[in-house]
């Protein structure tokens, strides 16, 4: 996924189907400068992590 699309998804009120390493996730924030996204798995919201945007699959 590219940074612009990740930002669109993060800002959208509609929940898009996005995965990280096969796990459905929610994108909290996207840092355009670093190309990193703050995410958490839908089934484990306490498990926040920062990952490269390019590793997210829509």
UniProtKB/TrEMBL annotation:
Domain of life: Bacteria
Keyword S-adenosyl-L-methionine: no
Protein's GO biological process: asexual sporulation; sporulation resulting in formation of a cellular spore
Keywords in alphabetical order: Sporulation
UniProt-listed NCBIfam families: PRK03174.1 (NF002867), SASP_H (TIGR02861)
Family that this chain belongs to: Belongs to the SspH family.
Name under which the protein is recorded: Spore protein H
């Amino acid at each position: 996924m590219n940074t612009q699309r990740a930002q669109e998804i993060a800002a959208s009120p509609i929940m898009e189907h996005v995965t990280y390493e096969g796990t459905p996730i929610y994108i909290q924030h996207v840092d355009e400068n670093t190309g990193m996204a703050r995410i958490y798995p839908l089934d484990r919201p306490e498990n926040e992590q920062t990952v490269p945007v390019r590793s997210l699959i829509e």
